[in-house]
Amino acid sequence: MTERKRESLALEILSSLLFVIFLLPFGIVIINSAKDAFSVTQYPMKLPEDWTQLFRNIANIWTSPNVQYQSSFLSSVIITVVSLLTITFFSSQAAWVLVRTKTRASQLLFLMFVAAIVIPFQIVMFPLLSWFRIVYQATGVKLLRTYGGMVISYLGFGMSLSIFMYHGFIKSIPYELEEAANIDGCSRIKTFYSIIYPILKPIHATVLVLNGIWIWNDYLLPLLILGKGNRVMTIPLAVSNFAGAYVKQWDLILTSILMAMVPVIVFFLFAQKSIIKGMVQGSIK
Amino acid sequence: MEKTRENRIVFWLFLAPVLFAFLMVVVVPFFMGIFYSFTSWSSSARVGGGLSFIGLTNFTESLTDPSFLYSFILTFIYTAINVLAINIVSFALALLVTSAIKGRNIYRVGFFLPNLIGGLILGYVWQFIFNNAIPGLGKAWAFLAPLANPDYLILADRNASVLALVLVGTWQYAGYIMMIYVAALESVPVELHEAARIDGAGGWLRLKNITIPMVAQAFTITMFLTLVNSFKQFDVNVSLTAGGPSTMFLGKPIFGTELLALDIYNTAFLANNLAQGQARAFIFFIVLVVISIVQVRTSKKREVEL
């Protein structure tokens, strides 16, 4: 008994040590966000002398024209929310007709979508830019540097995995459910929205979490589609613009990093269980 | 008859939005890209005019360019070390947080946390740690003085910088992979362990003969995920090292920590050679597909053997 106790004590000490090491970088960001430009470079590992500096730094970033924190945050929220809505909405309805229609075309389309999961962004990113430019010249619809271009891109790149996950889930829903509705005179479209769509709740959560974390943190796609020095910027773009242009201003860079991280961490702590579950399930499928 | 007609209409109606997006951002650019990689496409050339067909030149030039070859080798090395490091760390963490310790949930959340933040931002955090915080330790304590010596800066050394990329990659990704192992470990029946313990099997024996075979399927997933993600690493590369420090390879000065994804980006935008960037992306894609297929095949085979 004592040996087992000693063993578990050792494990606990090891875990808490690792825990501290894992979170140390966050601690370093926090303490250095509460320093001025001089002490951040002179004493980066000391605790700040005056914690109120943190609020001065935050206020500084909040209003800084170089970071554009408020508008970047708003743009990030708009892009993420609208993209997630379109992805869940359109992917689930597509997956449903793909499951319930047993034709050649249906099988072929599903296979094509699944195959697209392995396509890396790198191979389409350059032509995507010139294609969007061609679309603009031909139709006048602006996709570069706009929300529209971002949302359609995220739908296009996010739908494959999402359809795949919805597809697996919908297959397990008994068809009798829909037949009953059909007999009652329910149209196909109404059947989907009033009967199937609500049943998909658990898989909606997985799709939202997987795509949400990806879209919120994504850097390369907004860098290319929105470009630098645009009115519309996401948080990663804003941080990289600032950190790239003012390499020495670590006090403010770290504050902007802190302000980029806090919303995500707060959100995570609220929806911790479903986020972890969603990410694990998404990977296993 | 009415019914099948309705079904067909609904089928295409419901697929229309995703099909449209798929054509717009995947299919059309994919084929345009294949076409462009055989031309002299550059950002100054007007689309439609000024493109000339140059055959395989972009590919042969890429494959004889020291910076591309170097990035290729470096990416393989980085991927190998990273996959190993992430899987060892995350499996160990998973064993820890599924053991009978107090506060398991808090540990899980803590280890998972870095995964929520984008690689770009994490790279800047670690750039500060390597360039300021660690030298700061040297300034604060005399016995750590060498840390403050600018000659020993981690990001000024090529090999150390590659390991720094691995460290950040592992720190970011281990918590996520850990959760996949946790899910697998928790599905192993407790009775198996109890029975083995009664038979006198020690911890190591049980790990080798029960735990590892039982979670073999998870290994397939985690190996695949870590392999593909390491190979595609871009964000941390940009913000932590930006490709530096420079080094010499085959008699040409090049970026010492430029992974493939960054090399593709830089070829197109820094060197202003979109066509060659596209050709490199194409090679990158082929290698990625081959790796994925080989990896899944061999893992599946091993799973059955276990």
Task: Write a short abstract of this structure.
The complex is a heterodimer of chains A (285) and B (306). With 285 residues, chain A is mostly helical.
Describe this structure in words.
- The complex is a heterodimer of chains A (285) and B (306).
- Chain A is 79% helix and 0% strand.
- With 285 residues, chain A is an all-alpha fold.
- Chain A folds into two domains: 2-63; 69-284, Orthogonal Bundle (MetI-like fold).
- The radius of gyration of chain A is 24 Å and the shape is globular.
- The model of chain A has no long low-confidence stretch (mean pLDDT 90).
- With 306 residues, chain B is mainly alpha-helical.
- In chain B, strands 1-2 form a two-stranded antiparallel ribbon.
- Chain B has one domain (58-305): Orthogonal Bundle (MetI-like fold), CATH 1.10.3720.
- Chain B has helices at residues 2-36, 57-63, 66-98, 104-112, 119-140, 158-186, 190-198, 203-214, 216-231, 235-241, 260-269, 274-305; strands at 246-249, 252-255.
- At the A-B interface, helix 1, helix 2, helix 4, helix 5 and helix 6 of A face helix 1, helix 3, helix 4, helix 5 and helix 6 of B.
